[in-house]
Write a structure and sequence with these properties.
By secondary structure, this protein is mainly beta. Helices cover about 5% and strands about 35% of the residues. Strand 5 and strand 6 form a beta hairpin.
C-alpha cells in the first residue's frame, strides 16, 4: 500500500526492525524508473505527500508525460513581414499532450492587403500565432502539417496550387511550393464566404512548461 514519505521514514529509525508488510509498503510507494528501450528519457518526481509522477527528462522543469491542455488561439496570416491579410474569421485550436502540440487552423473571408503585389519586403506568405514555441527552432517539419482547404483565387506565376505545401519553421508556418521548396510570395483571395479559405492542421514539439 502507498504511504507518505514521513510514514516510510518511521519504519527505518534506529533500532527498528521493519516488517515484511512495511517493506512491501516501501516498494509500493515508488515506481520503476527503468528506461524502456526506444522511449524518451524519463525520470520520476516525488511530491511532499509521497505521490510519484513520471516525467520526461528536460521538459522545462518537469513536465508530466500525461500533461493535457486545450488552447484557443488567433492565427495571423501575412503576405509579407509588413502586410497582413484581412481575415473575417480566424480560428485556431490546439491540444497539448505532454510536449506534443496538435493544432488546427481555419481562416475564412480572406482579403488581400492593398499592396499585395508591390513586392516591398515580400519574402513569402506565412502564418504565425501558434500557442507554444517550437522546441526545435530552425528545424523544418515537412511531414507534420497538412493543408485541408486552399481556396485562393490565384497564386504567383509558375506555381501550381496543387503543389502548395506548409512547412513549420521557427514557430511560424511557411507557405511553399513543394516542387521547388521556394516560398510563395503572391497568393490572392477575394474575401468570399467559403467554409474555409485556408485550413491547416499539424503537430509539433514544444519544450516549455506552462501549467
Amino acid at each position: 500500500m502507498k504511504k507518505t514519505k514521513e510514514e516510510l521514514k518511521s519504519y527505518f529509525e534506529t533500532g527498528d526492525k521493519p516488517t515484511q508488510a512495511q517493506y512491501s509498503d516501501l516498494i509500493d510507494s515508488y515506481i520503476d524508473a527503468k528506461q524502456p528501450a526506444g522511449e524518451a528519457n524519463r525520470e520520476f518526481k516525488i511530491d511532499e505527500n509521497g505521490e510519484v509522477s513520471l516525467v520526461s527528462a528536460g521538459l522545462g522543469g518537469g513536465l508530466p508525460v500525461d500533461f493535457y491542455e486545450e488552447v484557443d488561439f488567433t492565427p495571423k496570416f501575412y503576405v509579407t513581414s509588413q502586410d497582413e491579410y484581412t481575415v473575417g474569421s480566424a480560428v485556431g485550436k490546439a491540444v497539448r499532450m505532454g510536449n506534443i502540440v496538435h493544432f488546427n487552423i481555419k481562416l475564412r473571408q480572406i482579403s488581400d492587403p492593398s499592396n499585395i503585389n508591390s513586392g516591398t519586403g515580400n519574402s513569402g506568405a506565412y502564418i504565425k500565432g501558434l500557442p507554444f514555441p517550437n522546441d526545435e527552432s530552425g528545424v523544418m517539419y515537412t511531414n507534420n502539417t497538412t493543408i485541408n482547404y486552399f481556396a485562393a483565387t490565384s497564386v504567383e506565376a509558375g506555381v501550381d496550387p496543387k503543389n502548395i505545401q506548409v512547412i513549420y519553421w521557427g514557430n511560424i508556418l511557411l507557405i511553399v511550393d513543394a516542387v521547388t521548396s521556394q516560398r510563395v510570395t503572391d497568393i490572392s483571395f477575394d474575401g468570399g464566404t467559403f467554409d474555409s479559405d485556408l485550413g491547416i492542421s499539424g503537430s509539433y514539439i514544444t519544450n516549455v512548461y506552462t501549467p
